[in-house]
Amino acid sequence: MTEGPATVIVIDDDPSIREALGSLLRSVGFDVQLLASVSDLLSSGRPRGPTCLVLDVRLPGQSGLEFQRELSRRNIQLPIIFITGHGDIPMSVQAMKGGAIEFLTKPFRDQDLLDAVHVGLARDRAWLENEKALSTLHASYESLTPREREVMALVVTGRLNKQIAGDLGVSEITVKVHRSQVMQKMRAKSLPELARMADKLKLVPENPQSS
């Protein structure tokens, strides 16, 4: 899946603030979506590329903080910059503990918002790249045969070919062939690299059978 352009979503129920923020963000080259409520975002869906959300705390219907909690419950990654004209310390603490990039009280400096947006987009870009790499890794693992997966799970624990052959009841030469296929299909250049892949895949080998 190709990465789309960086997008900043602004959700504020005040049309004048939405338009002012939209003009500011477009002036520095961002794609911008201007929305009046959280429900509008849920209807339109998340853009494909790196995304950052500029979110008013007080909104009609679901509030900004409530939406932050909902995203967390649903394990949806979306960097948030809160803006508010009625902020207080407990509210800002709650937002930051929830993982917000910044909590800005109106009126705020344009540069403060832009700096926060850059941080948010960089964080989301890194997350998307990690998800893409993990998806590729899963695809490589799915290409392994069941026996190759067994061999991989034992190889990364440090067991020798002879020991693995005993564990699986096959010849040592058969283990060597499977091991070579695993390294090739997983595109691993070394055993430590294969072990890191197994860790990312959260592979848990079964207890080896005693030979």
UniProtKB/TrEMBL annotation:
InterPro entries on file: CheY-like_superfamily, Sig_transdc_resp-reg_C-effctor, Sig_transdc_resp-reg_receiver, Tscrpt_reg_LuxR_C, WH-like_DNA-bd_sf
GO molecular function: DNA binding
SUPFAM superfamilies the UniProt entry points to: C-terminal effector domain of the bipartite response regulators, CheY-like
Domain HTH luxR-type positions: 137-202
Residues covered by the Response regulatory domain: 7-121
Positions of transmembrane segments: none
Source taxon at top rank: Bacteria
Pfam families for the chain: GerE (PF00196), Response_reg (PF00072)
Positions bearing 4-aspartylphosphate: D56
Signal peptide residue numbers: none
A GO biological process held by the record: regulation of DNA-templated transcription
SMART domains documented for this protein: HTH_LUXR, REC
Keywords, sorted A to Z: DNA-binding, Phosphoprotein, Transcription, Transcription regulation, Two-component regulatory system
Listed name of the protein: FixJ family two-component response regulator
